[in-house]
Design brief:
heterodimer, A: mainly alpha, MetI-like fold, B: about 350 residues, alpha+beta, Rossmann fold, OB fold (Dihydrolipoamide Acetyltransferase, E2P), 2 domains, 6-stranded mixed sheet, 5-stranded antiparallel sheet, 21 strands, about 20% helix, about 40% strand
């Protein structure tokens, strides 16, 4: 079973998209998770619901709104054009933006749960030991929430790999730019090239299983006692 | 001097305190759960931001209308009820966490450093372990050493023994007493256990329902008859003195408190050591004459100061002065009547048990 160059290109693009998306999600999702875990603001509910929306929403709906917003007549489109970046739809970075929204709950929720599980006490203890709020976050909250971050990272990465609807709406099908593995499989099926579809599907199936196996077999406290 | 003038209004709970606390020795904040003692301690630490009012320590204002010093800038050490060690760090990592963040001038000014704390609390052999590998008592000792390692100017302790069983308590109390004797910084010690208070405190603040009921030197406060909160079976006083004599034959020690002598069981204390004895009201009986032919060792002349009601209508509490020091006695009302006890009267008290703390 040998993958064609187009397949390899699609897989490479998929992995790149998932890696970049996960990296951005760590940066974007962590503050949101921290805020959600600790705020008593009345905005906690609405913000939490917005973050969780991609869990329920059909990807085509999410992709449609992103397409409109980032398109030539949308506010984000206007902004990116003004800044000289051009338009995001049908580009790799357009896919990144879409994937960040699409996988946001998979980053925020595990990290938020991990932050909530820590509770106030270790942070209060750190405060009485002269640690400033930022210091407490990096030296106490982050290390204690590390298992949550690992889970969140794996889930976000895997979920982005499995993305299809959003990509199709805002990315289309440009080889090497936006044609990820899931779209490639769709193309094969459309063209009735079932053998090719089988090959790539098998790769994705094995990949997904291995990722989930790693996730479930991993125990954060192993070896620390 | 610690000035605490703080108020909190929460649904179902309010705190209203306006007190000067001594900035030396051990001050016990004593009360039942819900009395606000822990909340008060958290306010002093800056962990509770809901309070309004003024808080100052030796002239430094920590809280006022437009002043708020955050917890990490207050020169305090805090020992939580549960040790709250950082599970991802070793014992030494926990101790270093605060030490390396403490101000250098504080470290230089403090009589105490990390080595002292490790030595005093006997945790030298635990340094490489993770908190999960420690017993409850060991964890709390590490928690105390960690609080001391920041070279605090004020040590706050929130029921450090409450989460431990009796054996672990007995393991830690000697360390607390060493802290009391060796440490020159003031300690605020929250507790609901009368025996801990009797052993450790110099100054007592009794709290109930978010208010201070009584505040003063330990013995004056313990001996007050007007406090609505009685210690029940634990009502009694403590006397401070020193070990004056050892009776090798009978394994007894004579503790001298000013001109008064009390015989207690030999605990192995050295002659000249500071000694604190506790005399419970229920162990003190009153007679007109010094009794002959009794098994009781300690019979002392005393003067009746006042009489008060006790929790049960059959009993009354009698406040006496022995050599100017207050002692409480619990007798039945009938006995008090038959003896004709009245303020100013000279009597003899027999003390059935004296505990050397």
């Amino acid at each position: 079973m040998i993958l064609s160059d187009t397949d390899l290109e699609a897989i490479a693009l998929t992995l790149r998209l998932a890696a970049v998306t996960t990296l951005i999600l760590f940066i974007v999702g962590t503050p949101i998770a921290w805020w959600l875990a600790r705020t008593r603001s009345r905005w906690k509910g609405p913000v939490g619901a917005v973050v969780a929306l991609p869990l329920v929403l059909p990807p085509s709906v999410l992709g449609f709104y992103l397409l409109v917003t980032m398109g030539p007549n949308g506010p984000v489109g206007w902004l990116t054009q003004t800044l000289g970046i051009g338009l995001l739809p049908f580009t790799f970075w357009g896919l990144v933006v879409g994937s960040v929204f699409y996988s946001l709950p998979f980053m925020v929720q595990p990290v938020q749960n991990a932050f909530e599980a820590i509770g106030e006490r270790p942070l209060e203890a750190a405060a009485t030991l002269r640690a400033s709020p930022l210091d407490r976050f990096f030296t106490v909250a982050l290390p204690l929430a590390l298992p949550g971050f690992v889970t969140a990272g794996i889930l976000s990465f895997a979920h982005t790999v499995g993305e299809f609807g959003v990509v199709l709406m805002i990315g289309g099908n440009i080889p090497g730019e936006t044609r990820v593995a899931s779209v490639q499989i769709y193309d094969y099926v459309e063209a009735l090239e079932y053998a090719d579809a089988h090959r790539l599907s098998a790769v994705l199936l094995v990949f997904s299983f291995v990722v989930l196996l790693a996730l479930y077999a991993w125990r954060p406290d192993r070896g620390t006692r | 001097m610690i000035y605490v003038g703080l108020r909190i209004e929460w649904p179902g709970f309010s705190l209203d305190v306006d007190e000067q606390l001594p900035a030396r020795g051990v001050t016990a904040l004593f009360g039942h759960s819900g009395s606000g003692k822990t909340t008060l301690l958290r306010c002093i630490a800056g962990l509770e931001q809901a309070a309004t009012g003024r808080l100052s320590f030796n002239g430094d204002v920590w809280q006022d209308r437009d002043v708020w010093v955050p917890t990490h800038r207050r020169p305090i050490g805090y020992v939580f009820q549960e040790p709250s060690l950082f599970p991802h760090l070793t014992v030494l990592g926990n101790l270093h966490y605060g030490q390396k963040r403490s101000r250098q001038e504080d470290r230089q000014a403090a009589k105490f450093n990390l080595e002292h704390a490790i030595d005093l609390l006997g945790i030298g052999h635990l340094l490489k372990r993770k908190p999960a590998a420690l017993s409850g008592g060991e964890r709390q000792r590490v928690g105390m050493a960690r609080a001391l390692a920041v070279s605090p100017k004020l040590l706050l302790m929130d029921e450090p023994l409450a989460a431990l069983d009796l054996a672990r308590k007995q393991e830690i109390l000697p360390y607390l007493e060493r802290l009391h004797d060796d440490l020159e910084i003031p300690v605020l010690y929250v507790s609901h256990a009368p025996d801990e208070v009797a052993r450790l405190a110099d100054h007592l603040v009794v709290m109930e329902g978010g208010r201070v009921l009584a505040s003063g030197p330990l013995n004056d406060t313990l001996a007050r008859l007007d406090l609505p909160i009685r210690l029940g079976e634990d009502a009694g006083v403590v006397l401070d003195g020193h070990v004056a004599e050892r009776d090798e034959r009978w394994h007894l020690l004579r503790v001298a408190c000013c001109n008064t002598s009390l015989w207690v069981r030999d605990t192995g204390a050295d002659l000249g050591d500071h000694a604190r004895v506790r005399i419970l009201a229920r162990d003190v009986s009153i007679a007109h004459e010094p009794k002959e032919g009794t098994s009781i060792l300690n019979t002392l002349p005393a003067r009746v100061v006042s009489l008060g009601d006790d929790a049960h209508p059959a009993l009354s509490l009698v406040k006496l002065a022995v050599d100017g020091k207050p002692v409480l006695s619990r007798v039945t009302r009938r006995s008090a009547e038959q003896l004709g006890l009245a303020p100013g009267q000279q009597v003899w008290i027999q003390i059935k048990a004296v505990a050397l703390l």
